[in-house]
Every structure is written in C-alpha cells, then in structure tokens.
Amino acid sequence: MINRRATLKSMALGAVSTLAIAAMGIPSVQAQNKELKIGFVGVTSGSAAAWGTSNVRSMQTRAAWLNETGGVKIGDSTYNVNIVTFDDQKDPKRAIAGMEKMAQEGIHYVVGPNVDDGAAAVRPVAEANGIIYFPYAFPKALYQKPASNAVLGMIANYQSGPAIYKYLKEKQGVKTIAFVAANESDPLSQRDGGVEAAKALGLEIVAQNDTYQNDTRDFTPVLTPIVSLKPDLLVLSGVAPANAPLLIRAARELGFEGLISTETAQDAKVLEEGAGEYANGFISVGGASTPEIASDTMKEFVDRYTKMFGEYNDESNTKVYALEYILETLKANPAAIDNVEEFKKTIDTFSAPNPYLKGDAKLSYVGTTSFGQKRQLAVPMVVNEYKDGAFQTLFVGSVD
Amino acid sequence: MEQVIANGFYLGAQYALIALGLTLIFALMNVLNFAHGQMYVLGGFITYTIYGQLGLPFVVALLASGVTLAVVGALMEKFLFRTVIRRSLREESTMLLAAATAFFFDAVILLLFGEKQRGVPKIVKGVFNEGGIIMPYDRMVVGVLALVFIAAFVLYMQYSRVGRAMRALAQDRVAAQLMGVQVDRYSMIGFAMGAMLAGIVGGLLVTITGVNSGIGGPISIKAFMMVMIGGAGVVGGAIAGGFILGMMESVGLTVLRQYGDVTYLVIFAALMVFLSIRPNGLMGKPWG
User: Fold this and answer.
1) Is the pLDDT of residue A354 over 90?
2) A165 and A135 assigned to the same domain
3) Going along B147-217, which residue ranges are E strands?
4) Domain annotation covers residue A284
5) Does domain B2-277 have CATH number 1.20.120?
6) Which residue of A has its CA nearest to B105?
7) Do A221 and B258 touch (CB under 8 A)?
8) A176 and A258, same domain (yes or no)
9) pLDDT at site A1
10) I want to staple A207 with a disulfide (CB 3.0 to 4.6 A). Which of A178, A228, A370, B41 is the partner?
11) What is the end-to-end Cα distance of chain A in Å, rounded?
C-alpha cells in the first residue's frame, strides 16, 4: 500500500535525481577544464588580519578573473584556478597544520605565511611534501642554501631600508634617525636591519630601543620621549597597517616635525581615516598601483577586487604578484605542475612580461645578492609618499 | 615629567571607563565577560558607521552605540547567560559561554566591518601646548567625558532605585530576592548597562585611537588587569585599577625605555606579587 510518506519520499528522490542528471548534462567551458589548486596559509583574523586578507583576496580576484576568461593554459591542458585557504591566526602551530592540510590536498604551491615565525615553522613540512611556498617574511635563512623551497614574495626591509635612508639623506638632508618597533619578531628584526643600514650610511641614531606592545591603542606615552629627541627621521619598523596612522598622529600631535617612514606596505584609506592630514609626507613601500606606473591590467585588477570585496586594499599592490609568478612559471615549464624540482630548475632562467606595470617590465626571480640564489620575486620596489588620501611615487628601485 | 603624568591621567580615565562595565557584570552575575572587548569594538564600529560614514552628529553616533550595545547585552543575558546559570551549577559554564560569545563577535565583526583599521574625523581640532604639557583638545574632551560618565554611573548606582537594587543583588543575591528584588529583571538591566558602557567607551575612543576587528581580545585583557588590581566587582576598584594601570604604563614607557619593551613585564611581575599579597585586589569583593 502506498502511503503519503512513501509518495513524498519518491517525489523527493525523483526531484533530486532529475536535478543531478540535468546538472551533469549542462555543457560548460569551465567544467571541461582541469582544476589547479593553489594554497594560501596566512593570517586572516585577529589584529594582523589585514596582511593575510589582502593576500588571499588578491589571489581570489585574479583566480576568478582567469576562470571567467576561460582558465589558464599550461602545457596541453587548461585549468581553472582554485584557491584553497587556511587562516593560521598568526600562530606557527596553526601554520604547520595549514601546510599539512595543503600537502594532504596534493597542493604544491602555497602563498604565505605572513610572518617570520610562521614561515620558519612550515619549512620542514613544505620540504618534506614537495611544496614551494611564498612567504612574506624576511629571515634570510629561509631563502639561503640549504633551504630551497621558499621564495620571498616581496621586497625585504634590508633591501628597501638602505635605499630609502640614502634617498632621504641625499635629498632631504636627514642626519639623525630614530627607530620604534612593536615587540614582535618581525618588527624587531626589521628594526635591527634598519639600524645596521643607518649606521652604514653614517646617520646618527638617537633612539633604537623603544618598543611597544602590538595591541597598543594609544601611542602618546611611547612616542613622548622619542619626539623630545627631535630626530630628522622617525622609522616605524615593520609597522602594522592598523598601527601606522595611530603612531603618525601621536607623533605629529606631540609636535614632531621631521620625516616619518616605514619599509612595510600601507593602505591610503587607513592612513586617511586614522591620521588625516598628519599622514601627509609619510613614506612607505608599495607596489604597482600608483598612477605613474600602473598598467591597464593593474587598473582592471583594482576594479575587479573592489567589485568583489567592496573596497580595495593598497597592500595588494605587492600581493598581486605571487599567484601570477606561480602560473607564469608553470606555463614556462608545465612539468612543474606536480614536480617542484622542475619549478626550481625554471626559476633561474624564467622571464615573462609584467602585466601590472607600464612599459616592458619583466617578471623574473631575483635574490642572488641577498640570498646567494634566486629565491625572491622581482616585485618593483616602489617607494611612495602619502599625500591627501593617495600615494605618490617617490622613486622606483629594484633588487637583484 | 608633566607630560608623562598628563598622559597617565588621560590613559587612566579611558581605562577606568573600559573596566567599569566589566566589573558591573561580574558583580551582579559572577560572570567574567570575555566578550567585553568585542562589545567595545562593536560600539566603535557603530560610531564609525554613523559618524564617520553617514556623517551624522557624533552625539547621535555615541547614543546609537550605547543603545545598541545595551540591547545586545540584554538579549545576551536573557537568552544565553540566564539559561546557562539556571541549568548549570558549574561556574565555568558561564566563562565558557562568555569566551564563545567573544569568538562569535570577533567573527561577526570581521565579516561585517572588514579587516582594516578604521578611524573617524576628529571631534575637536587643535592641540593644547602650555607649561610643558602637550595634549590634543579631542583627548581632553574625551578624558572629561570619561570622567563625567564615571561620575554619572557612580551617582546612579548610589542613589537611584535601580542602582540600589543592583547593589543589593551584588551583595547577596538570595537576600535581595527575599526582600522582593526581581533578580531576573535587575540582572538583565545590569548586563545591559555593562554592555552599554563598553559600547559608549568604544564610540568615544574611536575618535582617538580608531578601531579594528582584532582588538577585542587585548582590550578585554587590559580590562581584566584593571579589575584584578582594583578588586573584582567593585566600582571604585575598577576606577582605581584604571588610573593605576594608566599611570604605570605612562611612567614605565618613559623611565624604562632604554631597556626595551619591559614596561608590561614589570607591570605583570608587580601584579603577580601584588595579587599574592592581596588576592582580592585593592578593594576586594563584595560591592562596596
């Protein structure tokens, strides 16, 4: 006997089966493509969320764009790019778990982690599982032999710092310099690198031991003694984007009239909201979106990012590059798609047009001078000056 | 040194206001509200949206922060904490619930307001610079407002009918109930007031220090420190704890600067020694 429940069950099963058959039967360009998984392990929550979020959103924007236009052709196959993400919460233990997850998913290319200790922690996992990873962390040991699986995703402070200080010494007459840093491994190591660079240039260092808790909200007590020393240049070593406007504002309100700079990437909107006109003249390291150098592709990237996530983050000017390098290197040597040794072989000779810069700029791997081997993305070292809500290019440098 | 003392007083005033809401909820319900910092952040983002984005007057934004958080606090008490307190005899159940709400708020705030640091236009421009003291006028306004809110809160608790009922509840819950105090009602009002204070201070300080989605946890930790110094559940203790912490921070960052970031190391070491001597803090419990 057929009762009501059995009838409903049969109807539900029938509907599901029909939908499944229909879904399988719909022809789709994307469905015919293979899937290429690229990983991200970094911080997308907590106080440093801005660092990793700009990373992962850059990857997701570029992947969606590529997939929408038919995918990426590598060798004889075309792939849709799938970004697999893991929030390590800036915790090295979770970074290890994230890299293990990437290994379990058969992923060979991972962007991140964002900080020194996380990048160091994942090294054994990456090397044991054939993963090339692209940290945004500066310890040289990650990129020098015998290490070979990490590729630095940006310009390091020990590369940009000397260039900025030299420029300011020659162009602005800077003679005295003070450093202030958060009491964490990344900012402290960046401060130490900056102090060495300043000494090498013959600048007088008037303060170098001043530090603050990274969760400090009011920087007036921190900066009061430094401002009284009246340095020509105040360096905010490794400053997080959330803290930069607060430090700038506190320094200016205390009457500081010298220059302020950092070697980390910043966001113009955050500076505008947090420090307003006090941020004018602030010098930082950016990427490729200032009008003077951005290509049409870069402008479209910014538009797509903004449409996808509601608001652009200027930190993505440097973070747009990692996924592009991975895909272009795989195109150059399709055998590297599941073999990182092939990827490493390609690094030394790789060259491709840089789509994000005007002119004939190239994508290539660098780092020989700093690391003794090519383990760094050739991201343009664009030194910016903030002015009335936007960055202006101060000068463009490069590393080798 | 005048500047260091001025910095300490300003920090103290804002810290005391942060700690007040936390200590009120602890006094009334014996609940350590780990989500206090997240409530502060939510208040900051509401003011940011209304004053910074929509361009409405700052007073409207501050009012909206307070009212919204009061509603959130009342709902949390009625539907979460009251239920758990009724069903569980273990005190740690409310702590776990508070921790869970903190993580929940963190995630919701990140989703709603994004990962970026946010700030609003200054409410008052200009900087006071006389007699060796430099103090922006907006900090002076916020400091004075913090003191006004603290005074209003203390007077309300001392002289109003609701305040007296809540103090009775804090001193002895059972006795208060036997005397006709409606425990559920005043617990909910108390929780709402604690949350409202967090929202107001978040709205006030967004004009000075901005706000971002990740600062809730650190704010809660500082609030706990102030409450530990002053004594859990005591309004005067929270105020004293706030000013002591603010002054220690300001003096430490100047006097100890050549030794690196040891100020908080010294503060934590001093706190451990202090608590081993006076485990109930300066003023201890119950409500004074």
Assistant:
1) yes
2) no
3) none
4) no
5) no
6) A46
7) no
8) yes
9) 44
10) A178
11) 81
